[in-house]
Amino acid sequence: MVIDFNASNSANRSAQTGATTGKRDAAAESPRPTAKSATQETPTAEAQVKLSPQAQQLQAVEERLRDLPVVDSERVAQIRQAISEGNYQVDSGRIADKLLALEK
Prior knowledge:
Elements: H1 10-29, H2 35-39, H3 53-67, H4 73-85, H5 92-103
């Protein structure tokens, strides 16, 4: 359907209005469930989630990890001091082993 907004005749406008009114009436006759009513349902026994013992252990470990600092400040201070004193030794073999382990 093409709507000519520049047309001045009222026949075009009344045809458009009638078409949209018919659509509104059809929509009003068929009630649809709303999202609000679906979320207010009480959970049944089938809807409940039970975690396995392994999942419970993983959840406990995650909680403990959240409490740990992201950076080991003491280790950073030790390395910083070793670098400033010129005592920091890079173990290239260890680095290579760690890189190869990442590739697996």
